Amino acid sequence: MDQEIGGASGGQRVNPRAQYRQLLLLAYQSFGVVYGDLSTSPLYVYKSVFSGRLRDFQDEDTIYGVLSLIFWTFTLIPLVKYVLIVLSADDNGEGGTFALYSLLCRHAKFSLLPNQQAADEELSTYYGNGPTTRNLPPSPLRRFLEKHKRLRTVLLLVVLFGACMVIGDGVLTPAISVLSSISGLQVRAKKLHDGAVVVISCIVLVGLFALQHWGTQKVAFLFAPIVILWLLSIGAIGLYNIIHWNPGVYRALNPYYIFKFFRKTGVAGWISLAACSFPLLVTPVPCHFISCTEAMFADLGHFTSMSIRLAFVGVIYPCLVLQYMGQAAYLSKNFADVPTVFYESIPKAVFWPVFLVATLAAIVASQAVISATFSIVKQCHSLGCFPRVKVVHTSRWIYGQIYIPEINWILMVLCLAVTVGFRDTTIIGHAYGIACIFVMFVTTWLMALVILFVWQKSAWFSLSFLVFFGAIEGLYLSSSIMKFPQGGWVPVALSFIFMFVMYVWHYGTRRKYLFDLQNKVSMKWILNLGPSLGIVRVPGIGLIYTELVTGVPAIFSHFVTNLPAFHQVLVFVCVKSVPVPHVPPEERYLIGRIGPRAYRMYRCIVRYGYKDVPKDEENFENHLILSIAEFIQMEADSSPPAATSDGIGSRLILRNDADVAAPGNIVRSSKSETLQNLQMLYEQESPSLKTRRRVRFEIPEAPYQDPLVKEELAALVEAKHAGVAYVMGHSYIKARKNSSFLKKFAIDVAYSFLRKNCRGPAVALNIPHISLIEVGMIYYV
């Protein structure tokens, strides 16, 4: 169809009512996905604020000062910074720290991935619909950063350290959320001791992690009503407390009380800032990443900026402000109830329903950050910075909802250790604050670079953004660091452990790639072997996996000298990541030729975005053969032949067995203009027989313009019918004898341990074990 649906294209107009319904539906769903943890922050904010020396200041002005700090921080950071500015910096509809880093990699050439190509810039999603810097001359600052690789390395390390902080947040959020909600039982059950609360919390946490393999799809619509009911409840309770205890609490919205607060409390007030930042602590949703208010930005992939803004401004902001004001009003008359201020401020008539909703909301918040951790681990792996892990799709309809078993059980063990070890939400809160504020601080720096290099705004605007918001978050970060001995060391220690794993894996992988790059097989050596490569060429297709995007890897010569025969058609397959969120399926394959036509050697580069998850596709071989056939046609003649007399041309035809007698059931390929003379016949048995799909390629009898093209396509089809084998090098990485002690430890001990205990490349690439050939080789790097 030539008619398009959408406003920008001038096609068919969309019903405005349908747009509004879609907007409201997305806003409704965002409550259970984006705002789960933010909505539960009132459970422990005031308790953490007044847990230290600030407890000695029991007067109304101090409480008003704390409320004013919470209100203005909540207004400036989430509302002004994220809703008004950061939400506009999307990467083809995706958000989060990795989206900002991806924009910088493409527009400012900050990428450190060694296998990037100029052809990657031709992807339709590479520059997106936003401003492009492709034809703009690089600025002096950009040229300076491009020349100094160490600065780009530092930028990557900062981004990865922020990612490690998010993983640490995945340990702390379930612990503090569940423990805070369960501890509310002690308000009504006075005899319930702390040990029982910890045991109940651990049981809930084990159940939460045990259910992760089911995914969030089946309960996704349950999340939103729970959070909405919770928000309306705490908003109503806050309004009740304002009216009942202190109607004049609205005066605390005057920022003058912040000045009075610091003048009176001094250092004690500054240290309390770490707890005042808890209103910013919000975790992301399934298949996304980044903590704190970062969720509003990170969840653009599942929602839209307008729906997230509508939910925040319409419900989240007013309900939480009312709750914090209500707690302040209650504390101004009942300061002794600080440790359990939230539950004490609940009217007795509605205590148990509110407690139940609070527990459910805490579980929702925990689910969000756990799923976000899965997403960020996957994205780190796409950058070559995390060992291979099993990635399971938990939803057939919502792209990006994944489950990683290894990470799930590691998180569970660490979360239980934190819960049993600390047993106090105040100490866990100190650790929680450092993790969240640091990630926000990283986003501010990246956003300043995006404003300068991607949006092409003035340096003064970028610097103003950095100074204003960086100063606010830097103040909170400095306060959180003061809590380092009191639990703040936990996320830092976890981050350094994960950072060590990421750096060692990235270093070992990069050294292996550089070894391949420096020891490529020369084309002269291949040509001297002749079309037979000096061995017997047997029927079939050999897919040789390599990380190189150009040239022939050194391991190929190892294959030739150790194997007595090789396949008739050889394809060097490189699976790589590009700095875009998603790669369209029709742009995923890049095909090229290695050597003369008679050698029957090709190269296929399979490209994935940092949010793409390769699925177990049984059609990979078929897509590969069709892509090679298209390349052969395009190489022979760039202009498509005329259509045949049947009106269809020699288009690609797909039929099931049941459709053979029905000539009208024809599916026309989108690549029909280039695959003019290749037909593919699907012979699929009944699904109940559970047999694998069999595919047969056929060359029609229509004459070809070029007999060499016909001969090459015939050889390709013959090889496909003979079978496909996957050839992969089983490599051992060792440091050279003259290497330093640190390098030997990193390669021979740490990297070797990670390779032995992570998933093999064949499993990660979904290669069928029955068709796999592995050849061992030692790399001295």
In short:
By secondary structure, this protein is an alpha/beta fold.
Summarize the structure in words:
The chain is α/β, with parallel strands linked by helices. The chain folds into 2 domains: 29-127 and 139-483, Up-down Bundle (Amino acid/polyamine transporter I); 520-636 and 704-780, no CATH class. Helix content is 53%, strand content 9%. The protein is built from 27 helices and 10 strands. The protein has a 6-stranded mixed sheet, sandwiched between helices. The protein is elongated and about 90 Å long.
Task: Chart the SSEs and their pairings.
Elements: H1 16-33, H2 36-40, H3 45-49, H4 60-85, H5 97-107, H6 140-147, H7 149-182, H8 185-188, H9 194-210, H10 220-245, H11 256-265, H12 267-271, H13 273-276, H14 294-298, H15 305-331, H16 341-344, H17 351-382, E1 392-393, E2 402-403, H18 405-422, H19 425-453, H20 459-481, H21 489-518, H22 523-529, E3 536-545, H23 554-562, E4 565-578, E5 589-593, E6 601-609, H24 620-636, E7 679-683, E8 694-698, H25 707-722, E9 724-734, H26 741-757, H27 761-764, E10 772-780
Parallel strand pairs: 3-4, 3-9, 4-6, 9-10
Antiparallel strand pairs: 1-2, 5-6, 7-8
Helix pairs in contact: 1-10, 1-15, 4-11, 4-15, 5-19, 7-9, 7-17, 7-18, 7-19, 7-21, 9-18, 10-15, 10-17, 19-20, 19-21, 21-26, 24-25
